[in-house]
Specification:
The chain has an eight-stranded mixed β-sheet, with helices on both faces. Helices cover 33% and strands 16% of the residues. It has ten helices and eight strands. With 292 residues, the protein is of the alpha/beta class. This is Alpha/beta hydrolase. Keywords: Hydrolase. It holds the Pfam family BD-FAE.
Length: 292
């Protein structure tokens, strides 16, 4: 069932940090502190009027027109999360030559899934509009998300309603990346997700898998082999099969050595040895062959 709350991710980070001799600190703070160099950051950039409509921008020290630009959405059952906790994502990818915008968005119970997706589309529109000012090419725009954030990225990439409301189209994306995302999760069991999706009045077209027909922008779908939060066979492999059948280029892989929380934590230096998540993502964004 979709999207662990941040406490689960934090617990996974902390356990992994302890295994590396880093116990005694918050797992998230460890990852942020050791994420790497070779980048610069702009904090608290507004993409809308609401206080939750803010993002942090991470830029490589050297930016060229071919530099990929990623808008990243975190998870948290659509009811919790802070962009500051995911600085390690922006720093890890920026140190690898990728520009990243880590976006906050409004949360349930204040809003429902439709408003959440509208916020994510607005953040994407900001990235599209600002790309030239950042020295980037709009044609290299990607979406990426973990857990519930993977759902957000999938819906924007697959269901044209959301980007079209922001004056964009899924075809303008260079691609998207999902880490342990829930793409097919009816009926809803998770209590927080039930609120966000007005269960049992959740429409079938709220599911990314319902929009996988027709050729879409290429995708990278990664998930833990053993995920106790989101079923990787149903969600990741199920969506991948549907996309492939429709002619969409998609790479999908289930990874040993990580769980639902640590699959995103593995982007940061302390946890990279758990699984090649960063190598997979960077190769996809650079349009290079996947790592061996």
């Amino acid at each position: 069932m979709p999207a662990s709350p941040p406490t689960l991710a934090r617990r996974a980070f902390l356990c992994a940090a302890g295994a590396l001799g880093l116990a005694g600190c918050s797992g998230v703070s460890v990852l942020n502190a050791l994420a790497g160099s070779g980048h610069r950051r702009q904090e608290g950039v507004a993409y809308g009027a609401d206080p939750r409509q803010r993002l942090d921008v991470y830029l490589p020290d050297t930016v060229v027109a071919a530099t990929p630009l990623v808008v990243f959405f975190y998870g948290g059952s659509w009811s919790s999360g802070e962009r500051a906790d995911y600085g390690f994502v922006g720093e890890s990818l920026a140190s690898g030559g990728v520009a990243v915008a880590v976006a906050d968005y409004r949360l349930s119970p204040a809003v429902r899934w439709q408003q959440i997706l509208a916020d994510c589309a607005a953040a994407t529109r900001w990235a599209f509009d600002q790309a030239p000012a950042l020295g980037l090419n709009r044609r290299n725009l990607y979406l990426m998300g973990h857990s519930a954030g993977g759902y957000n990225a999938a819906m924007l990439a697959l269901d044209a309603r959301w980007l079209s409301a922001a004056g964009l189209a899924p075809a303008q994306l260079a691609g998207w990346v999902g880490l342990a995302g829930p793409y097919d999760f009816l009926p809803i069991v998770n209590p927080e997700a039930r609120v966000a999706f007005d269960w049992p009045h959740t429409p079938p077209d709220s599911q990314p898998i319902a929009h996988a027909g027709g050729r879409r922008s290429r995708a990278l779908l990664l998930a833990p082999t053993e995920d106790t939060v989101v079923n990787p066979v149903r969600s990741t492999q199920g969506l991948a099969r549907r996309l492939e059948a429709a002619g969409t280029p998609v790479r999908h892989r289930l990874l040993d050595g990580v769980g639902h929380g640590t699959i995103v934590g593995a982007l940061a230096p302390p946890l990279r040895r758990l699984a090649p998540v960063r190598d997979e993502v960077l190769a996809f964004l650079r349009n290079e062959p996947p790592p061996a």
